[in-house]
User: Which sequence fits this backbone?
């Protein structure tokens, strides 16, 4: 039997789109029973966002949804119906944690706010992940991962210095800072409850964890009074530190020589010992001063070479290098990810066998590998209502007739 | 502001009170330890006698280059106690083993095999500390064809697939700012470590967690891999092209704004946006009207993006960032300013929430304003226990706790073990 450390924990998951479901995925993959409470009429938009299996749209065909919802159950409830809210309360009363990422006040309007829940489940751990937090003049403001990156400073800081801030073009905050901080906070709260019996409310503003991982850049202003500007791939004290073209179309390698020793190894490995005779390039400071020249010489050499061969050559010589892997490389050509078993394949009733991420950690004893495909919309409605809430088939049929389960 | 007691404050209101962490990690693991420390754990930073790598990292407080004035060091090591310990010497290794017996968690970032050669492998430590969780963060993991490969933040972003999709298409891809590969690894490590520590507290059984930075980065790729797997499409970097029609960066009179009224769930904000443009009498606003804008096939065309830009860009260009932001949000339209560090520091929402905190930094004899709580827990609030330690600041205190006498400490110091 796999050793699932969070087996026995149940999460009533009202969240949708990005940061919320990715937070609860940590828990479901560790064995918690995560019940996604969805709506068939106001569907999680990610269910209908590409990519779709074979390009054909459908609420149970999105890979974007699938990857972040492994090992979860899905039920559909109409929270605008008072019976629907009652059922949600029954699920919550059998849960340890409530998660939502609506605007402040939304859960209260359903009668499912923290105070409501506390009245029947005093020790609940209640995580709210609104855009800018529960308090403050902008607490009703709305956004998405990319606007978070803009507001938090990440966009301004990322990209070449002489062009507009290009940022990451991904919803980074949704995929890393927010879910990781959300999961860490809930775990800490679970530990506190274990020791004291107390639940609590967690207010996570989706803008703030991203700022927390930009600490030094923001402190360049708050401490030194200077705005940190974009640096492209440059490092203030290291050169070379960049991305260089390789043979083929749009192939690149990242190369870093942290010190003079790595620089010497780099020059030797690429057959350019003459670089070592260039006085200007003898020290890190000198190479930084002539960064353009170093980069040009290096690019001229790498562009004649194959990216993966150069990776092997440089790494054997003790030089940090990394090929810019694209999605196909990652899935099909990276022997390390294959060795780690990073890509797992799960069978899904509508999508067939498709690729999912495994978490980035391996254990000796515990288990966190996804084993169940993302749920179909409402796949577990009957199972949860009968198994968890003890409703009979007749009761469930009657609820369905009344439009409570849509 | 800070506890002056020699034993770290164990408060009922600290969620992770009583957890001791030995943070022997380099920059790839520092934030993992900080997450525990700022929630109330007793995190002991174990530095080599020459000092932690972050002590040499820019920027420096008041631009004075000094190992006690690195801003990254001061930020990523808040709330930790600090000791210096030479782990390449047998006396240092023995002390580390003694400390590990008192700890719940060790975080380390040495290349695979290094801790083993010091007699400090997880198996080795488990002999005297069976409950101990060891989290090892390496560029590619403990085993496998790349396990001996070196990794820096930039190369890890590359190998994890993130760098390829970042930047302008007409030039080399560019990275996210600020060691985000290392931070991503730290964040995932913190979650896994907390789960394992909580499990060990109940089961008495420790764990070795093997974290790959490359793999952690691969978690940040969004829809990139499903797109290849399901539709055979390899996602590339797109520069400033609108991510979806109506989602992108636009210049305004004093900076940039990021608008997001297309794609994902955002299409429900489209009509409100068009209404706004009409009320502002923006030229061509009615071009954004009509049923075709709710048709994904049309919205995905170059033509749709062009029309959006032709209407919105001239309007935005004449207006100030904050005016656009507040006007859009008043109408519940998703938009943000593209903030500089200065704008973040002066953001009224963050000020109202008390996001930035002032932390005394005795080594520079001044206060440092830094990002504070990334989450507000009602019963067990995040809080800074103390400023980042000076090199070896808590040697006496920590080694006394495992029973070393002042004379023994002096000997170790003479031998440069601490």
Assistant:
């Amino acid at each position: 039997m796999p050793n699932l450390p969070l087996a026995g924990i149940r999460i009533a998951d009202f969240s949708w789109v990005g940061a919320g479901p990715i937070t609860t995925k940590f828990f479901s993959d560790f064995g918690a029973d995560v019940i996604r409470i969805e709506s068939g009429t106001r569907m999680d938009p990610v269910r209908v966002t590409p990519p779709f299996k074979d390009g054909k749209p459908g609420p149970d065909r999105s890979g974007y949804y699938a990857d972040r919802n492994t090992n979860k159950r899905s039920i559909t409830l109409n929270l605008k119906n008072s019976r629907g809210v009652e059922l949600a309360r029954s699920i919550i009363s059998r849960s340890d944690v409530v998660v939502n990422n609506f605007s402040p006040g939304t859960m209260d309007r359903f009668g499912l706010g923290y105070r409501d829940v506390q009245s029947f489940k005093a020790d609940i751990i209640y995580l709210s992940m609104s855009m800018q937090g529960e308090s403050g003049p902008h607490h009703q403001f709305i956004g998405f991962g990319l606007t978070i990156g803009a507001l938090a400073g990440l966009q301004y800081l990322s990209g070449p210095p002489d062009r507009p801030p290009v940022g990451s073009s991904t919803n980074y905050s949704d995929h890393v800072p927010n879910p990781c901080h959300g999961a860490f906070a809930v775990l800490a709260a679970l530990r506190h409850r274990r020791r004291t019996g107390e639940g609590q409310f967690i207010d996570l503003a989706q803008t703030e964890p991203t700022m927390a991982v930009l600490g030094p850049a923001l402190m360049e202003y708050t401490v030194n009074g200077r705005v940190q500007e974009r640096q492209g791939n440059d490092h203030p004290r290291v050169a070379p530190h960049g991305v260089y073209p390789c043979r083929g179309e749009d192939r690149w390698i990242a190369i870093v020589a942290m010190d003079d020793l790595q620089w010497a190894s780099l020059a030797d490995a690429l057959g350019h010992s003459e670089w070592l005779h260039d006085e200007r390039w003898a020290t890190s400071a000198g190479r930084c001063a002539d960064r353009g020249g170093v980069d040009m010489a290096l690019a001229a050499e790498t562009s004649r070479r194959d990216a993966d061969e150069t990776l092997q050559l440089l790494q054997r010589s003790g030089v940090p290098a990394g090929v810019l892997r694209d999605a196909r490389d990652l899935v099909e050509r990276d022997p390390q990810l294959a060795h780690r078993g990073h890509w797992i394949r799960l069978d899904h009733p509508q999508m067939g066998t498709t690729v999912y991420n495994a978490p980035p950690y391996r254990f000796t004893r515990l288990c966190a590998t996804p084993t169940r495909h993302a749920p179909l919309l409402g796949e577990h409605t009957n199972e949860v209502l009968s198994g968890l809430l003890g409703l009979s088939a007749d009761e469930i049929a009657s609820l369905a007739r009344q439009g409570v389960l849509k | 502001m800070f506890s002056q007691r020699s034993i770290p404050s164990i408060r009922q209101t600290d969620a992770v009170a009583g957890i001791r962490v030995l943070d022997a990690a380099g920059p790839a693991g520092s934030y993992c330890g900080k997450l525990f420390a700022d929630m109330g754990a007793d995190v002991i930073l174990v530095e080599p006698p020459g000092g932690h790598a972050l002590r040499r990292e820019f920027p420096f407080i008041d631009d004075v280059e000094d190992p006690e004035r690195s801003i990254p060091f001061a930020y990523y090591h808040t709330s930790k106690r600090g000791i210096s310990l030479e782990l390449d010497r047998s006396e240092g290794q023995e002390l580390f083993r003694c400390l590990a017996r008192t700890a719940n968690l060790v975080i380390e970032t040495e290349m695979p095999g290094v801790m083993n050669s010091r007699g400090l492998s997880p198996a080795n430590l488990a002999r005297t500390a069976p409950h101990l969780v060891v989290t090892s963060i390496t560029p590619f993991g403990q085993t496998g064809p790349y396990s001996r490969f070196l990794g820096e933040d930039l190369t890890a972003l590359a190998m994890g697939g993130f760098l390829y999709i970042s930047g302008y298409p007409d030039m080399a891809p560019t990275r996210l700012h600020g060691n985000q590969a290392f931070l991503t690894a730290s964040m995932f490590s913190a979650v896994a470590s907390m789960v394992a520590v909580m499990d060990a507290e109940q089961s008495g059984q420790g764990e070795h967690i093997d974290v790959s930075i490359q793999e952690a980065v691969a978690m940040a790729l969004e829809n990139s891999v499903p797109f290849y797997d399901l539709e055979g499409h390899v996602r590339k970097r797109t520069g400033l092209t609108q991510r979806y029609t109506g989602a992108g960066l636009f210049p305004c009179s004093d900076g940039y704004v990021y608008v997001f009224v297309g794609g994902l769930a955002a299409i429900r904000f489209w009509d409100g946006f068009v209404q706004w443009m009409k009320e502002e009498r923006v030229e061509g606003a009615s071009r954004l009207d009509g049923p075709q804008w709710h048709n994904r096939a049309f919205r995905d065309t170059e033509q749709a993006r062009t029309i959006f830009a032709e209407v919105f860009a001239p309007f935005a260009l004449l207006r100030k960032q904050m005016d656009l932001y507040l006007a859009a949000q008043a109408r519940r339209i998703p938009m943000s300013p593209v903030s500089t560090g200065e704008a973040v520091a002066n953001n009224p929402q963050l000020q109202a929430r008390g996001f930035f905190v002032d932390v005394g930094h005795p080594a520079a004899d001044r206060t440092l304003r830094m990002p504070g709580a990334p989450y507000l827990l009602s019963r067990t609030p995040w809080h800074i226990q103390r400023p980042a330690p000076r090199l070896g600041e808590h040697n006496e205190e920590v080694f006394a706790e495992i029973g070393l006498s002042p004379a023994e400490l002096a000997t170790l110091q003479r031998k440069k073990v601490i």
In short: The first strand of chain B starts at residue 20 and ends at 24.
